[in-house]
Specification:
alpha+beta; Multidrug-efflux Transporter Regulator, Chain: A, Domain 2; 3 helices; 47% helix; globular
Length: 68
C-alpha cells in the first residue's frame, strides 16, 4: 500500500534553490554536471528533486565543511 509516509516528496528547482541558498541557475548547472541528482517529469522535461537527495547533498556538504 502506498502512503504519504513512504513517498519521497518531489521539490521544484525554486524550492531546492531556496533550501540551498543558491540561484536556480546554479542548481541547474550542478544538476547537469551530476553534483545533485534530479528527475525529469512532464513532456516539457521539468526538473524535480527528491527530498532525500537534497538532504544527502546537504549532509555531504556539511561533512566536507566540518572536517578538521
Amino acid at each position: 500500500m502506498v502512503t504519504t509516509n513512504n513517498i519521497d516528496k518531489l521539490l521544484t528547482v525554486r524550492e531546492v534553490a531556496e533550501i540551498l541558498h543558491v540561484h536556480p541557475n546554479t542548481l541547474r548547472r550542478w544538476s547537469d554536471t551530476g553534483r545533485i541528482k534530479f528527475l525529469r517529469i512532464t513532456e516539457r522535461g521539468d526538473r524535480r528533486y527528491k527530498f532525500s537527495e537534497v538532504a544527502s547533498f546537504l549532509d555531504s556538504f556539511n561533512d566536507y565543511v566540518n572536517k578538521p
